[in-house]
Amino acid sequence: MFSLPKTFIAAAVAFLAVIAPIHSPFPSSSLAQTGGGLRVGGPCAYTDHPGTATIVAVTPDSTSPQPFPGMTVTFRFKADGPLPPVVASDEDRIHRLTLTNGWNPGPRFLEKYGLRPGGEVPCLLRLIRSGTCTPRIFAFPGIDLSDYFEAGK
Q1: pLDDT digits (tens, 9 = 90+) for 134-152
Q2: In whole angstroms, how large is the CA radius of gyration of the chain?
Q3: Are both 31 and 89 inside the same structural domain?
Q4: Which of 59, 87, 93, 118 has the fewest CB neighbours in a 10 Å radius?
Q5: Is 82:95 a contact under the CB 8 Å cutoff?
């Protein structure tokens, strides 16, 4: 039987403890050092910028993976007040509304929440202040983006 000297094993473990975090397969933006070690994700803090989302288009999407007909919903965001310069151009862009899990909403969801082309709904642009979560999130007060009733669950 082959055995390695204990000093070699100890040196190898020490080397890996130093080099492994440097060559981690995880992107540095998703990791944060804490007193207790590595932390992935939150907790995160956001600054909310209220505004209005205007629905630009609603089109069928036959390639959606969900168990109901998916609809691609696009919208424009208009803030009620000035936005920080880093995101001011978000008001000129077309954004996609998806359910929390990334699915496109279905036709009954759109009907339930009154989403139709030209319609306006309250919207929050949430910008990250601290943490390693998603840097920009659109939230829709009064619309439950985790409402999967069309999936039958």
Answers
A1: 899 999 999 999 999 998 8
A2: 23
A3: no
A4: 118
A5: no
Residues 6 or more apart whose CB falls under 8 angstroms from that of 2 comprise: none
Strand segments (E) across 1-94: 31-34, 37-40, 45-61, 70-79
Range of the domain at 23: 6-40
Q: Is residue 1 part of a domain?
A: no
Q: What is the DSSP string of 111-124?
A: HHTT--TT-EEEEE
Q: Are residues 74 and 135 in the same domain?
A: yes
CA distances from 122 to 10, 21, 43, 80, 151 (A): 59, 43, 26, 10, 25
Sorted by sequence, the CB contacts under 8 Å of residue 135 that are 6+ apart come out as 127, 128
Please tell me the total count of domains within the chain.
Answer: 2
pTM to 2 decimal places: 0.70
